[in-house]
Every structure is written in C-alpha cells, then in structure tokens.
UniProtKB/TrEMBL annotation:
This is NAD(P)/FAD-dependent oxidoreductase. It comes from the Bacteria. SUPFAM superfamilies: FAD/NAD(P)-binding domain (SSF51905). Residues 5-325 form the FAD/NAD(P)-binding domain.
C-alpha cells in the first residue's frame, strides 16, 4: 500500500513541533513527511523584540532546520507557499507543486492593522527575523543621520510604538536598554531621544494583573519611556502618527520610526483556502482539524482555539503552538492507523513579559514574579523551547545563559 504523504507548511513553533514529534514516533516506512518553509532556518518569534531593538543579533535568534530534523524521516523543502488548493489536495510554491494526503498549516502570524490608513505603508512590524533586522537598521540609520545632519531634525530620534500588549511592552523593555547604547555609539545626547508608547485601551497590558502592570510601567518610565494611554493611533503618514486624544481632539506626533505592535492575525494565505476563518484564523475542531476538512490540521497562530471556560479564544502564543504540535503529530498517526484522534488540551504554565534582559513581570503557576527572578524565568522558558525542538545540543548552541 502507498505510504500517505504528510505535508507540513511552516517551520514556526507549531509546524516544527509537529514534525519533530512525528519523527520521534514514526518509522521511515509509515509516511512520507515533507516540511516546507520559506527559509532554511527556524527563527524564535518570541525573541524578535530583541532582534528588532538590536539587543540580540539576527543570527542569535535563529537556527538551521537541518539541525533538528532527521533527514531519513523528513524531507525539507525551502520554498515559499503561494497557494493552498484544499479541493485538489495540493500546495503551490515558488519551488514546485506538492500533493498531500494530510496537510498541516502552520504559516504563523501577520501584524494586524485593522484597516487604519497608512500603517501598512509607513509603520514597521515585528513580523519575522528579516523585518526585525530592518527595524534595528532603520533605528540605527535614524541615529546616524541625525548625527551627520548639519540642520538637525530631532523627530528622527522619536520612536513611536503602537500597542502596549506583550509585544509592545517587550520591545519597549529592550529599547530602554538599547537607547543609551545607541546614544553612545552615534554621539546623540540622550535627552534628544523620545520613545512613546501609544495604547488604545485604558491600560497597559489590558487584562493583565494590575499590580504587575504598575511595576512594568514604573520601570519603563524610569528608563525614559513615555506612555499615551486610552488614545488610539488613527493614521500613519511618512512623518509620523495621528493619535485620537478625545472626542474631537487629535495630536500628530512626528517620528522617524513607528513600530506597529497592536495585535496579530493569521497568515493571509488562509483566506484564500475557502476554509471558514476570522482574520485568517480557523476556529479548529477539538483535535485541531479544520471544520469539514478531515485531512487538514491547523496549528499555531493560524488556529483559533476557544477556551470553553470563558468562551473566548486563547491568546495565540508559542507555548500553545508547541503543545499543539505534539497533539497534531499524535493525531496524524492515529488517522493513518485508523484510530480515534484526541482532543487538544492546552497546559498553560503562565506568562512572563520581559522588560529588557534584566527585568520582567509574570504569573507562573499562579504566582506573581518580578525583576531579576522573572527575567531568569523568561530565559528558562526560552531555553525550554530550544530543548523541546532540538534537545540539549540546541540549548548549548543557542541558549541564554547570561544570568544576572
Ligand atoms: P510562526 O512562529 O510565526 O512561524 C511561521 C513560520 O512559517 C515561519 O517560519 C515563517 O517563515 C513560515 N512562513 C510564513 N509564511 C510562509 C510562506 N508563505 N511560505 C513558507 N513559509 C512561510 N508567545 C509565547 O508563548 N511566549 C512569548 O514569550 C512570546 N513572545 C513573543 C514576542 C514577540 C516579539 C512576538 C511577535 C510574539 C511572541 N509570542 C510569544 C507569540 C508567538 O511568537 C507566536 O504565537 C508564535 O510564533 C506562533 O507560532 P506559529 O508556529 O504559528 O508561527
Ligand atoms: P495584543 O493583541 O496582545 O496587544 C495589542 C495591543 O494593541 C492591545 O493592548 C490593543 O489595545 C492595542 N491596540 C489595538 N489597536 C490600537 C490602536 N489603533 N492604537 C493603539 N493601540 C492599539 O497583541 P501582541 O502584543 O502583538 O501579542 C500577540 C500575541 O502574542 C498575544 O497572544 C500575546 O499574548 C503573545 N505574546 C506573548 C508574549 C509573552 O508571553 N511574553 C510576548 C509577546 C506576544
């Protein structure tokens, strides 16, 4: 009998975890497994705020896919997915067309701009490792240009961060440490630099523990970061952003850099599949399959999973994406063996939000943590993700060991 073909799209946390767990339990003769990803490396999306601020180099936040897959069990193809034909059971890429018996879509997130004019064009988004490198170099360019210019435009040194969710706050934490370094490197007086976070909701980190939020805001303000809260960004232009301050009150902030970190959606390719979706996220069945499509699994940020206790979606996180990979690998094997699939149940350990490499806030196993202890935990979480994908050798190669 012909071996079934399993095609996994995307080597992010969800896709790579699926493949790594499949290769642990599948014999070479059970299925033909192909992983397609646009780069020959995996990048740690959860470290991209560091690469964007320049506190980590881009090469530090990525590793070769070849280092974690077993070539005798998984074929890796470097290709960019261009279309997914669910009815025809095939995927078109810039490097060929691939048929499948079972498909796993793990193509990750894109920044959500909610149709706000100008953001797509004029704001930068912490979207992937290349975009992170671009943000870092854009900020450095602004500092270098200010330094060179005879007639100086101080707005070059203004950085606006849209959104005070986890991504915005983690990026601000890195900027808090990076700006003094940049000032030294580019001969810029610190008082000329302005870092402003603009948040639409009435609080920073909406929904998070208020005491921890107060800690985070205080520590970021002490590093010179300003907040404008309850004031949505309503437009971006080449010069900066327009902020709604009141009923008919607007303020324009001139800025050399605008980083948009105000939420995510799934990969736009999902919207072309014909599978029902909301902002490119598919409300999956309990076993992570797309409704009505028994041969298609969705993992990571392209999946929308409802927390039935509160009847709201779980926030899309790497923590959940990696766990989904474990279940999807099991369920693929069950389908091949004609067995029942299992329900995915997230095992949430908590969340830690870094405020730079030396500081963080978090709730871990129900307990609040702050400061160096929380920062240490964050590094352990980061190292654990490496361990789950590539074992101890990957932790040794890429892990974070600079304990303060
Ligand atoms: P991704 O990690 O986005 O990976 C998608 C993969 O698909 C990538 O390899 C990409 O190159 C590839 N791909 C995309 N399009 C194509 C295409 N057309 N063709 C081929 N390949 C393609 N979550 C946590 O749990 N903890 C954290 O501390 C945390 N920190 C974060 C910090 C930041 C700055 C950000 C932005 C997010 C953070 N998150 C965190 C959220 C987490 O990163 C995401 O939930 C997670 O990355 C989703 O994993 P994924 O597998 O769906 O996709
Ligand atoms: P988010 O949706 O969590 O936060 C976006 C923020 O932007 C919200 O506070 C929202 O009110 C604000 N916003 C929306 N529109 C706005 C506007 N027009 N003007 C100003 N502010 C606006 O998105 P995120 O921070 O990108 O996080 C995405 C996902 O990744 C979440 O699930 C998050 O939990 C996860 N994440 C986790 C970590 C971590 O665990 N350490 C770090 C980063 C991201």
């Amino acid at each position: 009998m012909k071996r079934p073909t399993i095609l996994v799209l995307g080597a992010g946390y969800g896709g790579l975890s699926t493949v790594v767990n499949l290769q642990k339990s599948v014999g070479v003769d059970v299925a033909d497994i192909t992983l397609i990803n646009q780069n020959d490396y995996h990048y740690e999306s959860t470290w991209l705020h560091e690469a964007s601020a320049g506190t980590l180099r881009p090469d530090q936040v990525r590793y070769d896919i070849a280092d974690v897959i077993k070539a005798d069990k998984v074929k890796f193809v470097k290709a960019s997915v261009e279309g997914i034909d669910i009815a025809g059971k095939q995927v078109t890429t810039n490097n060929g067309v691939f048929s499948y018996d079972y498909l796993v879509i793990g193509l990750g997130y894109e920044g959500e701009t909610f149709g706000i004019p100008g953001l797509d064009k004029y704001a930068l988004s912490i979207a992937n490792v290349k975009a992170a490198r671009h943000i870092r170099e854009h900020i450095e360019y602004q500092f270098a240009t200010w330094s060179m210019d005879e007639v100086k435009d101080d707005s070059r040194l203004t950085i606006v961060v849209g959104g005070a969710g986890f991504t915005g706050i983690e990026f601000l934490g890195e900027l808090g440490n990076r700006v003094p370094e940049l000032c030294k490197e580019f001969d810029v007086p610190k008082e000329k630099v302005r870092v402003l976070c603009v948040e639409a909701a009435p609080m920073v980190l909406p929904g998070f523990d208020p005491e921890l939020v107060e800690y985070a805001v205080g520590h970021l303000q002490a590093k010179g970061i300003e907040f404008s809260i309850g004031t949505p960004v309503v437009e971006a232009t080449p010069e900066g952003v327009k902020i709604k301050k009141g009923e008919d009150e607007f303020e324009f902030v001139k800025a050399g850099t605008v980083v948009w970190a105000a939420g995510v959606r799934g990969n736009r390719l999902i919207e072309q599949t014909g599978i029902e979706n909301m902002r490119a996220r598919v409300k999956v069945e309990k076993d992570m399959r797309a409704p009505g499509h028994n041969d298609v699994f969705i993992v990571g940020d392209c999946a929308l999973l409802i927390n039935e206790e509160i009847n709201r979606p779980y926030p899309p996180t790497a923590q959940i994406a990696m766990q989904q990979g474990v279940t999807v690998a099991k369920n693929l094997l069950s389908l091949i063996n004609g067995e029942e699939t299992e329900t995915f149940v997230p095992d949430l350990k908590g969340s830690v939000c870094s405020l730079g490499e030396d500081d963080a806030i978090g709730v871990v196993f129900g307990k609040k943590v702050t400061g160096a202890k929380a920062a240490f935990m964050k590094k352990m979480v980061d190292n654990r993700a490496l361990y789950m994908m590539g074992g101890p050798s990957l932790v040794v190669k890429k892990g974070k060991f600079n304990v303060l």
